[in-house]
Design goal:
alpha/beta, D-Maltodextrin-Binding Protein, domain 2, six-stranded mixed β-sheet, 22 helices, about 15% strand, globular
Length: about 475
């Protein structure tokens, strides 16, 4: 998911992309469990740590970089200094995909971490490896309360009533726009579009005045707009009450979403760029060059974008931040969270599991989440973190950082807005993307594109589930 992947966006990558920019399946481990949740939770023996003499050394595989890594290192150092029983060593991977591939390889080699940070779309595939201790087990043992967490991020990593991971690095899509471009187009720079139809209309006005909109070719568009309409993407409550077996999006709402996106692109009011490769940041770079007046991106990129603009080389840009334009103002849905959760391995000794729980609980506590939010741009996943002086100062000096928090905190908390849990998530998103591109460039109608997408998604999910022996 681009929301998660772009959490690693750095100034260096943006500058490299600027120099070269032009305009323009999940692997399942053998022996995986076929069910989405255990009927009886395994134990988390916290007493193993309490009764231990000496220091327990554990490793945490993380996927942070640049400022994000510096912040995580600081939080981890504070944890190591706060007590004398557990010492955590961070092991940095090249990115979410790299972490996942190394983890899968470790299932065969035995080279596994005690705890690991995994991207949101890996949730079902992670469960299917049968190699994680649900954090629910440790929560129960510790009588750990989750009442302070924002409901939606917590719900994302809860499948069939079991909390498999704690939400950690959570982001959401937001609208980036150039207030100067809005003024030139006769639009109110203090009132960015709040709905999809308004976004289409504003893009037309921007194009007429010499800019337009940058639109990343990314399949989360459909999922997110469906969530804002409180509609499911896959069956079985988005894969939360039972394993997802089919798509659930061949609806009038999805056809309407695709129709509006097709109008946006085929009219020339928006220019697309891929989500990977040398042109993947064109939507953001186009804001700096004046080519685009607005774009949709992850909130996790806000810190980097703000820092880049502060350098003075894009003096024509006055950055505005708006909420993700929802499907309709008359429908009560919500923006689904993105990002990553933190897991505990079931392949390590009980004492290491207990030590891992202590660490994960620490990096998700009130002050750690406040520090993490201020240092990275991710949203704090705790309501109490939002009330700290750290976050309040951040939001006062940089109000744009509060937009994603409000998105995730407001709206309906339902299976539709919590996001989907799908085994072959990456392949499913490829199916959606292919149908979207066929609509933009192949003359395929929106209704046919939606129907084809769901048919291909059904085949992809069925094939994955069959390999696991799951229904």
């Amino acid at each position: 998911m681009r929301i998660a992947r772009l959490s690693r966006l750095t100034l260096a990558t943006l500058f490299m992309a600027s120099a070269t920019a032009t305009t323009t399946a999940a692997v399942v481990a053998s022996g995986a469990a076929p069910a989405g949740a255990a009927t009886k939770l395994p134990s988390c023996n916290l007493k193993a740590l309490a009764n231990h003499k000496g220091v327990v050394d554990i490793t945490f595989w993380e996927s942070a970089s640049e400022a994000n890594l510096t912040t995580l290192q600081s939080i981890t150092s504070a944890f190591n200094s706060s007590q004398s029983q557990v010492h955590v060593t961070l092991v940095t991977q090249a990115g979410y995909d790299d972490t996942w591939q190394k983890y899968l390889a470790g299932l065969s080699s035995g080279q596994l971490p005690d705890a690991v940070q995994l991207e949101d779309q890996r949730t079902q595939a992670a469960i299917d490896t049968n190699s994680f201790l649900p954090v629910q087990s440790c929560m129960n043992a510790a009588k750990y309360s989750t009442s302070d967490y924002l409901p939606r991020p917590l719900a994302y990593w809860k499948v069939n009533g079991v909390q498999w991971a704690l939400p950690f690095a959570v982001s959401a899509p937001i609208l980036y726009y150039n207030e100067a471009a809005f003024t030139k187009a006769g639009l109110n720079p203090a009132a960015p579009p709040t709905t999809l139809p308004q976004m289409v209309s504003d893009a037309k006005a921007l194009k007429a005045s010499g800019s337009g909109m940058g639109l990343v070719l990314d399949p989360w568009h459909l999922e997110t707009w469906l969530a804002t309409a409180n509609q499911l993407f896959v069956n079985n409550k988005n894969g939360r009450s039972a394993r997802a077996t089919a798509g659930a999006f061949d609806t009038k709402t999805a056809v309407s979403i695709f129709s509006q996106l097709k109008q946006l692109v085929t009219s020339g009011d928006a220019t697309t760029n891929p989500s990977t490769g040398p042109d993947e940041y064109d939507n953001l770079l186009g804001m700096g060059s004046g080519k685009y007046g607005m774009t949709i991106e992850t909130s996790a990129a806000l810190g980097t974008v703000t820092q880049l603009l502060s350098g003075g080389q894009y003096s024509n840009v006055k950055l505005g931040i708006g909420a993700f334009p929802v499907y309709s103002s008359s429908v009560q849905g919500g923006v689904e969270p993105g990002g990553s959760g933190v897991y505990i391995s079931s392949k390590v000794p009980a004492i290491d599991q207990a030590a891992s729980w202590e660490y994960l609980a620490y990096i998700c506590n009130t002050q750690s989440q406040a520090t993490w939010a201020a240092g990275t741009g991710y949203i704090p996943v705790r309501k109490s973190s939002a009330q700290t002086a750290t976050v309040q100062h951040l939001w006062t000096t940089n109000p744009g950082y509060k937009v994603a928090y409000n998105e995730i905190n407001n709206g309906a908390n339902t299976p539709a807005t919590s996001g989907s849990v799908i085994g072959p998530y990456a392949d499913v998103r490829t199916d959606i993307l292919n149908s979207e591109i066929s609509m933009y460039t192949g003359g395929v109608s929106p209704s046919s594109a939606v129907k084809s997408a769901e048919s291909n998604v059904n085949s992809t999910i069925s094939s994955y589930n069959s390999r696991l022996g799951a229904s």
